[in-house]
Design brief:
Blueprint lengths: L9 H22 L1 H6 L22 H6 L14 E4 L9 E4 L1 H17 L7 E4 L9 H12 L2 E4 L5 H11 L3 E4 L1 H10 L2 H10 L2 E4 L13 H9 L4 E8 L4 E5 L6 E2 L5 E6 L12 E7 L10 E7 L1 E2 L11 E2 L4 E2 L4 E3 L2 E3 L1 H9 L4 E10 L5 E9 L5 H16 L4 E4 L2 H8 L10 E4 L6
Helix pairs in contact: 4-5, 7-9, 10-11
Length: 434
């Protein structure tokens, strides 16, 4: 399922992608009401290299929210499925997928399974939802069917049902949000954990990074590995807007960017492309989408790119784990950090049973950070606070405000009525500090 172009040379891949880019630009100029206005003075034939992309306008989340319908390139009666974003950083945005887009989605995820080392004979338990207008569960289901795998569609939640399904259907691959997998492992009996370790060979982790910037496992990944020492952990990066998954191979050295489906720039504050190895905001141009293709769309995620040799033989560029989200950047007591750094500390403490981070603007106009946690029974609150303060100081050089709350209260904060998925960050700051 991997396009043969990815196994050729970097020069051939670049030429192939440039052709795909120019086809996208031509399509947008004819079919997109939004981009017709933005590209009115742009001649497609003038785009001779990926560096020339800097001549083209950037697209933001705010643009998508404010002009949602104008991004649609086909009549609504040609839409086969409607998707919405989660709205984590703002108003949810709708995306319409044509039948061709659904086939593209299936091809994309089949490629992801192939990249990760899965086989068509695998049996995959999907611990991601197919409902609530989410793309992830639909994408992986379509991809597994395209690739030839059997699926066990359990969806998210219900640790008991997840364990029953593992016992009943004996999957050898799991696709799940890694923190939820830890919930299942903690819920399981010793015999059930033993069965999981006997059956599950590979976990494709979505929605949360399991690696640090140097590609070693972070605390979340390490805790899974501790309970499942022989399992192969595969990291992915995707979003509804991209309609593309970027999946790492067995080498675990970054996700291979699909040459046929997407081009990724990493840009600085001015929208200029950063040099390889430097941190920049992930900015995507999608290829081959009929319904709502995007041009130079700024995701808000911060990563690093690499074109170094990979042992798997794939010559495409690779993307690092997400280092943070620009809109969520915190400036606290003279230190700049991302919530991911706080998650990493908390994920390293197995006695922290649940957490949520609250951001606010204090009375002098600076960021205030409160970490609300629930802890294991038997651990005194003062002892827990001391442990947390020590770890925060050692790892972050600053100590957020710590509140110890019952797990029930934490879960109420994580599952807000307006949100379609659990959250770990509540950002109530007055100003946009992006």
């Amino acid at each position: 399922m991997i396009n043969e172009i990815e196994l050729t040379t970097t020069q051939e891949i670049s030429a192939f992608k440039l052709e795909r880019l120019r086809a996208t630009l031509a399509y947008l100029k004819v079919n997109s009401p939004y981009y017709q206005k933005r590209l009115a003075d742009v001649a497609v034939e003038q785009i001779l290299s990926f560096e020339d992309l800097e001549q083209l306008p950037l697209t933001t989340k705010e643009d998508l929210a404010a002009h949602n319908d104008e991004f649609l390139c086909v009549p609504k009666d040609q839409i086969a499925d409607w998707i919405t974003t989660s709205g984590t950083l703002g108003k949810p945005v709708s995306f319409g997928l044509t039948k061709a887009d659904l086939k593209r989605l299936a091809k994309n995820e089949a490629r992801s399974l192939a990249i990760s080392g899965c086989q068509p004979s695998d049996r995959i338990q999907l611990m991601v939802t197919l409902d609530k207008r989410f793309m992830a569960g639909l994408a992986y289901y379509l991809g597994a069917q395209e690739y030839g795998c059997a699926t066990v569609r359990v969806g998210s939640g219900s640790p008991g049902l997840q364990l029953d399904s593992i016992s009943r259907f004996e999957p050898n691959v799991v696709i799940a949000v890694p923190s939820f997998l830890l919930v299942i492992l903690d819920y399981a009996s010793d015999d059930q954990v033993e069965q999981i370790n006997r059956l599950i060979e590979k976990i494709i982790c979505i929605g949360e990074p399991i690696r640090k910037s140097d590609y070693s496992l972070n605390n979340l990944g390490s805790r899974i590995r501790e309970k499942m020492p022989n399992v192969k952990l595969i990291s992915t990066y995707a979003s509804t807007e991209m309609a593309t998954a970027i999946t790492e191979c067995a080498s675990g050295m970054g996700g291979h960017i699909p040459a046929e489906l997407i081009h990724i720039e990493l840009v600085d504050e001015m929208g200029k492309q950063v040099a390889e190895g430097q941190v920049g905001e992930v900015t995507v141009t999608t290829f081959g989408i009929e319904g709502m293709p995007l041009l130079r769309y700024k995701t808000g995620d911060v990563c690093v790119k690499s074109s170094a040799y990979c042992a798997c033989g794939n010559k495409t560029e690779r993307l690092s784990p997400v280092l943070g989200r620009k809109k969520q950047m915190i400036k606290y007591k003279g230190t700049t950090l991302f919530p991911e750094a706080i998650y990493e500390v908390l994920n390293g403490m197995d006695w922290v049973t649940a957490y949520v981070i609250q951001l606010a603007t204090n009375d002098i106009g600076t960021d205030e950070v409160t970490v609300c946690v629930s802890v294991a029974k038997g651990l005194e609150k003062l002892v827990a606070v001391d442990k947390l303060n020590y770890s925060f100081q050692a790892n972050l050089r600053v100590k957020p405000i710590v509140k110890i709350l019952p797990r029930e209260e934490i879960m109420k904060l994580r599952f807000l009525p307006a949100m379609r998925k659990p959250i770990k960050l509540i950002d109530n700051r007055v100003n946009d500090l992006s």
